[in-house]
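Structure tokens please, single chain.
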Amino acid sequence: MRDVSIIGVGQTKVGEHWDRGLADLAVEATLAGLDDAGLDNADILYVGNMLGGVLSGQEHLGALIADLAGLRGMPALRVEAADASGGVALHQAYQAVAGGMVDTALVVGVEKMTDRLPQATEEGLMLAGLGDYEAAQGVTYVSQTAMLMQRYLHEHSLEVGDFAQFPVNAHRNAAANPFAMYRNQISEKAYRQAKMIASPINLLDGAPWADGAAAVVLVPTEQAQAMGRQGIRILASTLVTDALSLTERDDPLALAAARASAQRAYQQAGLTPGDIHLAELHDAFSILAALTLEACGFAARGQGVKLGQAGDIARAGRIPIATLGGFKARGNPVGASGVYQAVEIVQQLRGAAGQSQIPAARVGLAQNLGGNGATAVTHIFMN
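Here you go.
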């Protein structure tokens, strides 16, 4: 297997882009990534997307985006793994370059979520669950996550307000990110007073649905060095799955796939959780931020919330997360979010994160989940 590095990144601002289409956003990020890499093409294009057909009426995204980006003729395909589509597309690209199948791989994650009424978007997101037995009965992604949070509160004798530092930290970090959807700061008081959405999840627990696209360019590390580019190495890339339905899991709070994916990534990289300088985790909801901190080995079971309360997740903390706003404040264009994670870690490891920079950051971890952890993909990066 060859050593692999990212040499180019691109992204669009996350937000409600009512005047722009799905492909338009993808092309902007794609061209920005190629330009940053100093290239005008690649050997293959992977498109991470979950809801193109459902919300935008557009499938066949690989050929479409390659065509509109001036890359007609190149191999191109769409990768779908619910919310983990972007992370899995990156995993596929890593395998292709590491395995010697291609020398240059381009990954773009894209999603367009705000053009349809909320009911249509929610119905699309429900497809990440067990359609015959959950979606058909009206069990939504939010309601399932609320059940996880309720169980966590009960099992560890906590209250809803204990989760406040996850959104507070995310919004504080997003303030300096020009690509973030919400750059406003919020207070713990505002969190405690926020409107309840699906008890115990309130309005400030969940990441906003959004439109956006992000891209990365991968090459063998030797090629990056020969080009004189500042490559960020991918030390590990792992993909694990679990039962789609929470009811089929032995322990829903354990996030078994997330834990196994992280453990395999540490083994592949030859590192431990203590070697990680920052992490971009799947903070689509506050409870998932806590559970993934535990699954990735940064906290013991039931202690993820306490990392937030102690300030350990802040930029100056022991394990900074959501360093440029995370899903919560940057916004969550679901199929693209895993690629945004990679872009943001590359910015940090390049020392190009501006006021959000983590001092002396050299090793970063990104974990992207599909649904409530039925798919988990983990990457470890090093400068």
